[in-house]
Amino acid sequence: MKPDKRDTAWNDVGDEKNGESLRWRAEKRMSEKVGTDKIPGLPEDIPKLIQELRIELEVRNEELLKAREVLDAEVVRYTELYEFAPAGIFTLDKNSTIIEVNLSGVDMLETDRSLLTGRRFLDFVAEESKSSFNDFMLKVFEEAGKHTLEIDLKLKENSGIFVHIRAHFKEPGENCLMTVVDVTSLKESEAALAESEEKFHVLFDKSPIPYQSLDADGRFIEVNKAWLDKLGYTRKGVIGHWFGDFLAPEQVELFRQRFPVFKKEGEIYDAEFLMKRNDGKIILTSFDGKIGHYPGGSFRQTHCVWRDITAQKRAEDALRESEEKYRNLVENISDVIFIMDTDGKITYLSPVIKKIYGFSPDEVTGQQFTCFIHPEDLDHVIEKFRKRVVGEYGTNEFRLVAKNGNEHYVKTSQTPIIAKDGVTRFNYILTDITRQKMAEDALHMANKKLNTLFSITRHDILNMIMVIQSYLDLSEERVDDPVLKGYMMKEKEAVSAIQHHIEFTRYYQDVGANELIWQNPGEIISEVVKQLDMTGIDTKCDLKDLEIFADPLISKVFYNLIENSIRHGEHVTAITISSSRTDGGLIITYRNNGAGISEADKEKLFQKGFGKNTGLGLFLSREILAISGLTITETGTFGEGARFEIHVPKGKYREVLPHDEKGK
Question: Looking at the whole model, is its pTM more than 0.70?
Fold first, then answer.
């Protein structure tokens, strides 16, 4: 082959690893340097041998140069891989002294390389991990193979990282090679994942809300503990079973119809199903749910929660029934029910107003309530309404003017409707008391006439008694017969008794004749004490902040008790009146430190005519108290003073502000 052709062949091959190519190049260079001339005096084969050796040397030299270039490139690449590896690479001796470290290790320990070489790696290990690291190093140098460890490193400024270490050595006595990877973020992620899983566990297994998941065929994939507890099944008896098996029989077909719609639409809300508990009981449930999909968008599973609304449904039905009853009551009751705002404007009226007063609800709704009040009662009603707006509630009586102009007496009671900002409206019940009022007026007039008749008759009878007594006195002076005198004495006693009874009617006719009112017993007692001679008697009363609902004649009750203490107590020096609450109401206790009342007298104490004076005081006291449902008993111990207890039932007493706080 000619040289030019060999050049072409070399160019065609272009592979520096080709032995023939290298040899051809060497031969070419040697021919250019030495030529083909023979050397004088040498055998003919010697120059040829030298030429061959030179060519061989040139080939070897070329190979070495190429190998050097490859080696240099590999060294550079190794150095880059070593220095810039993502893990720290350390060479340590048995004492954990750092022999060599790459740049990643330098960056990891945040210390200059010059300060790391010769320093112990143990210095960078957190205190709580030092023992584990020492054990790890002993194991590395004692057992061949690769060993791993995860520990905390402590860096500058109290910062630290969590690292994964992998170390090994080839032969005993050698240094070990250790790679260190910062897995702090991974550890934090694992911790976060563990926390997330724990939260999910709590949410899933400990949630009070039942959860279930179904596959595409409607079979159970998953249920939580609340689901099992609510229905009483075991997990084994549920997973893999069809949802319809847990429904009331009449609802199975409904599920067949709804489930494909659910899968298509992707969500359900307030879907109601009758579910069958393990004990056979049927409960009503309400489902909310969504469909879970695979990344490609295909159906994966359902995610549903449900709640037992059996009690809620019953309550709703009961409420609906109650509302129906209330509606019937409101529309058919003879009383008018209306609602009024705090400005006095009517916002609702029951239909019965048309029947009683001639107004339709539409005519009155939106009007001021004062438009229908009798002019003479207007100021009184407005004042009452102002008090109710500030929290003073109660009943009220006044006159209304009907559509036809007739006057009606009415009585109202109200309850406030309270919102976050306070009272916003009032519920009123208006009762027509016209007939009652007319009957009361008629009764009052009849009582007035009867009282007048009683007064005149009593006066006439007492006059006749005085005449009889006078004639008896004259007859007694003219009669000497002892027997007749005895008869006349009996006649005088009988006349005196008649007079006494007639006098008693003067007081008894007023009992129950007046309207019951709220009265302060403390103030009544203060007035009674002023009317009696209390010399040498200390009186204490703690009833100042109390009112009782009773007949106005209750003052005679306390008058009689105190007068009896003065008259019959023999040595009374102290009187106390106090009160105490019980489950049944209030007890007003009256005590004195006098002689007291014997057991024999206690049984007859409140009988008419019993006593050392008129015998009517305590009887009358009991009658006065009984009008408003109050009772009186004597509970003292003979020789230790009298003790009377007045029992006031609930609703017949109330607490009032002390005098110095009224009006504030």
Answer: no
